[in-house]
Amino acid sequence: MNFCKPKSKLKGDELKLMEVLDAGGVYFRDLNECVRNTLNSGKNEISIKNVAGQRYIADGLSHKCRIFIDGTPGNDAAAYMDGPELVVCGNAQDALGNTMNSGTVIVHGSVGDAAGYGMRGGEIYIKGNAGYRVGIHMKEYNGKKPVIVIGGKTGDFLGEYMAGGIIVVLGLNADNEAIVGNFCGVGMHGGAIYARGSVDPFKVGAEVNIADAKDEDMEILKEYVSKFSNYFGVDYEAIMGGKFMKLSAHGKRPYKNIYAY
After folding, report:
1. From start to end of the chain, where are the E strands?
2. Contact present, 46 and 35 (Cβ < 8 Å)
3. Considering the entire predicted model, what is its pTM?
4. Residue 37 DSSP one-character state
5. Contact by Cβ (8 Å): 95, 69
6. Quick one: pLDDT at residue 15?
7. Lowest-pLDDT range of 159-168, 185-194, 242-251
8. CATH number of the domain located at residue range(s) 110-254 in this protein
């Protein structure tokens, strides 16, 4: 089965012929204009071939659509995205899902730094590893709860100043290495980070509690691990059979002592 290109779930009048775009040598502004024009013409599935670092793909889109990227999108892919499904058949560069509102991003490789920066809704699934400052300033906004699931490991400052949402780090194929970097959760004052395996206390911020995941946490994890397994064709039972730790904030104002009131 080709997990990178799942069968469309759109039905009936919603299902339109997929448009194939060739991004080879195309300037990023021209490419993004072409994507928008294609969607505005009534198409709801686009396959973009030969992507090589073009920035801002799917930024601000609110169309009910699915976009496949063959290659490596540049910085800020899916920034401010509000509804589409973006499937990356490769790696993605920095700031993926920056301030994302809703929708789904599925990356069949690894991602750079600051994925999910300021993210306030939607879900990001990463098969491989993620760089530094993933989920920085994530927040829950107007009833939305953002989610990031990382199949591998992450760099330093995971969940820095995190105010809401969920980050899951599975540590698959980590080869006994630490699955989170240093300064994990520094400034954290909301949300939850779930790590499959152990997390050394010296790696987390002083604002962070570390505890075994409880039954209610495992119920939350089932939903997102199930989606991860379906997207990437990995063994759900094997993942859920591991031990999970929960990282959460001590309080809502970790640095209250530096403010006047």
Report:
1. 19-22, 45-52, 66-72, 82-88, 102-107, 123-126, 147-150, 163-169, 190-196, 208-212, 244-249
2. yes
3. 0.92
4. H
5. no
6. 47
7. 242-251
8. 2.160.20.60
Please state, for a pLDDT cut of 90, what percent of the chain lies above it: 84
Pairing status of strand 208-212 against strand 244-249: antiparallel
Alpha carbons 47 and 162: distance in angstroms, whole number: 34
Pairing relation of β-strands 147-150 and 208-212?
unpaired
Q: What are the distances in angstroms from CA 10 to CA 21, 64, 185, 224, 228?
A: 20, 9, 38, 22, 20
Return the higher-pLDDT residue of 81 and 251: 81
Token pair belonging to 51: 């992507």
| Domain definitions of the chain by residue range | 110-254
Q: 224 with 199: CB under 8 angstroms?
A: no
Whether the CB-CB separation of 18 and 47 falls below 8 Å is answered with yes
Report whether pLDDT(40) > 90.
Answer: yes
| Residue 181 C-alpha from the chain's centroid | 17
pLDDT surpassing 60 at residue 80: yes
User: Residue written as tokens 């080869």?
Assistant: 175
> How far is residue 119's CA from residue 237's CA, in Å, rounded to a whole number?
29
Q: Which amino acid is at 207?
A: E
Beta bridge partners of 82: 102
- Tell me which residue of 186, 203, 196, 200 sits closest to 239, measured CA to CA: 196
